Amino acid sequence: MDLEKQSILDSAAVHVVIWLDPSHRDLGRWSRREMGDNGGSFVTVRRITKGPERGGGYHSTHEVVAGSTAWIGKGFSCVCAQGIDSDARLSFDLTPCQEECLHKLQCRVDVAYESSRKEHQETLRSLWYAAYPGVKLHGLISEQWKEMGWQGKDPSTDFRGGGFISLENLLFFARRYPKSFQDLLRKQEGNRALCEYPFAVAGINVTFMLIQMLDLQVAKPRSIVGAIFLNLLSENDRAFDILYCIAFKLMDQRWLAMHASYMDFNTVMKSTRRQLEQELLLENVSRIEDLPSYKLLYR
Q1: How far apart are CA 143 and CA 151, in angstroms?
Q2: Which residue ranges does the record assign to the ELMO domain (predicted)?
């Protein structure tokens, strides 16, 4: 049996080897090899998804890391690492369950925040009271919002980067993992910089980064990471929301480890994305809770 092999080398010195087996009944196997500075390496093999092949072959995808500027707010842009487009694309079939889960998530991603919609207004109020229990909110436009890390007194002006789902993510975090949420909101862990990142606006950018990383704005993921995430999403329809909480907590951990300040946010976000991608590629990750950084939510 002849095997084709495609290699990709990214800027993080990660060598991804895709073994393409046209006769295999499942969707291809792939090996990920990380090369250290000392020449050491390890290889893990896993399936991306199950199902019959289409057309007799499979294709690889680039996992090359590059910088692209993403919105974070006035005078504060986020350079998020993202895959580079290529003629080589990951080709695979979605199961009916994956199609349904992906469609539901993409519908959420497509919803813009509208300050005139009652549902959106109530969700924003709910976020306030989840963040500050017992503290009366004076209005949806109020100086109070600045305390949470919005740019001004009207949070609706900050949602253009992440849409309504970014508000849903923040509220989910506050309700599902209240201690971790409060620790980040109040910057209660570690030695902090004098000029810290704004909590709420940073949260919007975490949503935006994940949407990019997982290829959620295209019909079907074009990256291995995006394909793997679909398996996690089919196991847990809240996988994206939980991944958001993990990513936010991991971003803060990287922030502290790098002794970062306001102007370092771009670098911290790139580091966070790379770490998430590496964890999603681990062989033993079959549920969102299997990600090593998941434990940060309970620390």
Answers
A1: 10
A2: 119-280
**CA distance from start to end of the chain:** 49
Give me the pLDDT at residue 219, please: 87
User: For residue 159, what is the DSSP state?
Assistant: G
Alpha helices by DSSP H, listed for the chain, are 96-109, 118-131, 163-176, 178-185, 199-213, 224-235, 239-257, 265-280
pLDDT digits (tens, 9 = 90+) for 215-268: 998 888 888 999 999 999 999 999 999 999 999 999 999 999 999 988 899 999
Q: 163 and 105 in contact (C-beta within 8 Å)? A: no
197, two tokens: 């990142």
CA dist., res. 44 & res. 268, Å (int): 27
Torsion sign, CA atoms 131, 135, 137, 142: negative
What letter does residue 295 receive in the DSSP assignment?
G
Integer Cα distance of 288 and 299 in angstroms: 17
Q: Which residue has the tokens 């349904």?
A: 100
Q: Do residues 79 and 266 touch, judged by C-beta distance below 8 A?
A: yes
Long-range Cβ contacts of 225-231 (<8 Å, 24+ apart): 225/63, 225/277, 225/280, 225/281, 226/90, 227/48, 227/49, 227/90, 227/92, 228/48, 228/280, 228/281, 228/285, 229/280, 230/49, 230/94, 230/98, 230/101, 230/102, 231/48, 231/49, 231/98, 231/286
Query: Percent of the chain beyond pLDDT 90?
Result: 59
Which of these, 191, 194, 186, 197, lies nearest to 269 by C-alpha position?
A: 197
pTM: 0.74
Assigned token pair, 265: 């946010």
Residues 77/78/81/83 CA torsion (nearest 10 deg):
-60
